[in-house]
Amino acid sequence: MDVDLEAVLARIRADRAEAEAQLSAAQTQLSAAQARLDELASMEASVQVAAIAAEKYGQNVPAPTYAGQPSAQEPGWASLNNKQAALTALKAIGRPASTRAVYNKLRSVGRTEEFDQVRAALGDLKRKGSISKANRGLWQPPAAIEADVGVSAAAAAANSPAAAEPYSAAPEGTPAGANAAMQVLQSDPARLWNVREVWAEEVKRGWAEPTPNGREAVRVALGRLRKREPRVEFIEGPVYTYRWRPQELAPSNGSRHI
Asked: Are residues 185 and 118 in the same domain?
């Protein structure tokens, strides 16, 4: 049987073009869905922090500002260009942060840049050497701004490559990572803590960032902690939980729940 290979090839190419168009449309939808998910996660974190504060102090607290709702412009920010503002926001966060976290910070101080503008500004800062990539999806800030240095210093730094200096993600003496998670577990040994609860407690104490990235960092820290510390009990279930076991209750053979 004779086969018209040219006709077959034409159909394959037409089907491929259609599949590529469908893929492009799906990627656009996925990008929009991811942006919406990030926004909702930021809202969730803000509301949870407000609820914790209200419970602790027994009074209403100001409504949180969400990513899509800029607050009143704070002094000093209005004079910055996009790159200066992005660098200042990253330094203010004080730890590796996502583009979304920098965008949210800018919105919280009254800046009106769109997400794509913030992403472009961060990319320009990286090309200039002012910042670097900590890992996939996170931007590494330069040395943290000293307490007595104002926004103007950050603006100057944005226009020249920053020196490669180590930075402190939190004030000296502030618990971080696995040590912070351990202190939270130790604060109530009878309690079973899930990742969200440990993260919320760290946010309340000022040890963690009230963002999805902050919650993920706590999850990683708990995983490391249970591997190195036999007094941390790990309970599997619908929701993984952790508990601090006093020394006298720790298994004598050093084993632990995994």
From this structure: no
